[in-house]
Amino acid sequence: MSENINARATQISARLHSRYPLPVTMLDWKNPWELLVATVLAAQCTDARVNMVTPEFFRRWPGPGELSVAPLDEVEKVVHSTGFFRQKAKNLITSAKRIIEVYGGKVPETMADLLTLPGVARKTANIVLSNALGKHEGIAVDTHVRRLSFRLGLTTSTNPTIIERDMMQLFPRDQWGDINHLLVLHGRDTCTARKPRCPDCILTALCPKHGLS
Hints:
With 213 residues, this protein is an all-alpha fold. Helices cover 57% and strands 0% of the residues.
């Protein structure tokens, strides 16, 4: 990474922090288990929809112990509106069983252990680790981070693994969790997929607008 891109990354972070001083996930959660479930359900689904589903989910299955013995068809019904409901329900039940049997009923606290849970990849693991456990092992690369990091010239790749690696070199470790939230918030608010509002963007002077005609 050149000094120029590092300096630009620092300015981007500063401007986004000024625009979004309290960057947090839009998912509703109270503990690592709830954040894990909500993040799994949020795949290919909006946070708003997930927040409509999780109150009933956690009322019926407040922890991995309850979910580990839940009938699959009942879980499918509750999570149906989040999309891909069969796979999500199956993964969550299987993960709950593994958490009970292998991790003593507690959500794993390391990247390696979280990745052993069905349906949990680095994005989900990073979100749980940074937000619920205060551990910064990487940067969660979702659709917004993928889009904005490329447009902003912070990476030349569209591969989430490479994007995460590039971004981790540009931002201090203690900012890795915030960077995900900042780019998500900005991606929803201004730098949208189809019609980015470049004239209104606080990053216009810093943005090479890669991929935009």
